[in-house]
Design goal:
By secondary structure, this protein is an all-alpha fold. It has a single domain, classed as Orthogonal Bundle (ABC transporter involved in vitamin B12 uptake, BtuC). The chain contains 14 helices and 2 strands. Strands 1-2 form a two-stranded antiparallel ribbon. Helix 2 runs antiparallel to helix 3, helix 2 packs parallel to helix 4 and helix 7 crosses helix 9. It starts with a helix and ends in an 11-residue tail after the last helix.
Length: about 325
């Protein structure tokens, strides 16, 4: 029985808790992509850089607060800087829409043109970020790093395996729950949210009903900017901030949105966790896990790892291809707010 509990602790430490954390970050990113697709009707490949930009501004304000000895004690100072990052990300989204996307929307350009334009925006924003903060990895997390250390857990339980719980993991999960709850409440219960759903479902009918399209677009970028900045900052807190990472995150984020059902907010959230757990479970080495479950003479000598962590993003792509072949609309029906 003790060996079984140790095996569960191993899974919690290296699969379940990291999966929930990474899944939360992907879910927020995929939800932002879903809003743009469902309402503005194009695939925004610049979303990863929107996340990166928001995280960068948060880092800059974090450094400023730290230089002034302003902090939150055991909590990361980045939480104090986060509202400024959100505001800057919203402004960037609105400016991109006003000076780039709106023109093509007015011209009734096909979605593929807008998608190509978003790639151009992606490279421009990435260049700006690299000019400002460079290309090296930045660690900006401060405060109390661990809520529970492995050694403390071992002393408390008497188990061989220790459970380490980082504060960034708990913060990520709690903020994600709060943000997702508010977002779904906003869409279902508020007049503005219902207007956005109507606009997404049938733009022409929504316009005839008196819904202001400019207001819908404005609110969309408010939501997308908030989700992008929070997702980017939480990812940076949990790991580290590096511009190239957010460029790479575009694939799992889009895979999450498509697997769940592109245009479906609930599907985007589910897809985020599906992709996250798939990546982690396929690339995790299960040697220690099976060591506790199998008899000594059957203990594995190899790592028992299906794929190297170098192929993590390949898992996202594989799942995406499989879903597109079997169920192109995703797990949930797409394009519904």
């Amino acid at each position: 029985m003790i060996d079984f509990i140790n095996a569960i602790v191993v899974l919690l430490n290296f699969v379940i808790i990291p999966g929930l954390t990474y899944g939360s970050q992907l879910a927020l990113g995929a939800l932002g992509v879903t809003f743009v697709y469902a309402i503005l009707r194009f695939a925004n490949f610049a979303h990863g850089e929107l996340m990166s930009f928001g995280a960068m501004i948060t880092i800059l304000f974090t450094w400023f607060f730290q230089s002034q000895n302003i902090g939150l004690g055991i909590l990361p100072t980045a939480l104090l800087a986060l509202p400024f990052g959100i505001l800057a990300t919203i402004v960037l989204g609105l400016l991109s829409d006003k000076f780039v996307f709106k023109y093509y929307r007015t011209q009734k350009s096909v979605p593929v043109v807008l998608a190509m334009v978003s790639i151009g925006v992606m490279f421009v924003v990435n260049a700006i970020i690299r000019i400002i903060v460079g290309t090296e990895a930045i660690k900006f997390s401060d405060g109390q790093k661990f809520i529970m250390k492995a050694k403390q857990f071992k002393v408390m339980t008497g188990l061989n395996e220790g459970l380490a719980l980082k504060s960034s993991q708990v913060i990520t999960i709690l903020i994600t729950i709060a943000l997702l709850t508010f977002t779904f409440w906003f869409l279902q219960k508020t007049k503005t949210g219902k207007s956005m759903r109507a606009f997404s479902d049938n733009e022409d009918l929504a316009l005839l009903s008196g819904i202001n399209p400019d207001r819908v677009v404005f609110i969309t970028w408010l939501i997308v900017g908030t989700l992008a900045c929070v997702a980017g900052t939480l990812y940076g807190l949990d790991k580290s901030y590096k511009p190239i990472i957010y460029l790479n995150l575009v694939l799992p984020i889009f895979a999450s949105a498509i697997v769940g059902g592109i245009g479906s907010p609930f599907g985007a959230v589910v897809g985020g966790y599906v992709i996250a757990f798939s990546e982690i479970m396929v690339t995790y080495a299960y040697k220690k896990f099976f060591k506790y479950l199998l008899p000594e003479n059957l203990e594995p000598s190899s790592l028992v790892q299906l794929l190297s962590t170098d192929y993590k993003f390949a898992v996202s792509f594989t799942i995406l291809v499989i879903v597109l072949l079997i169920r192109p609309s995703g797990i949930f029906r797409g394009k519904v707010l």
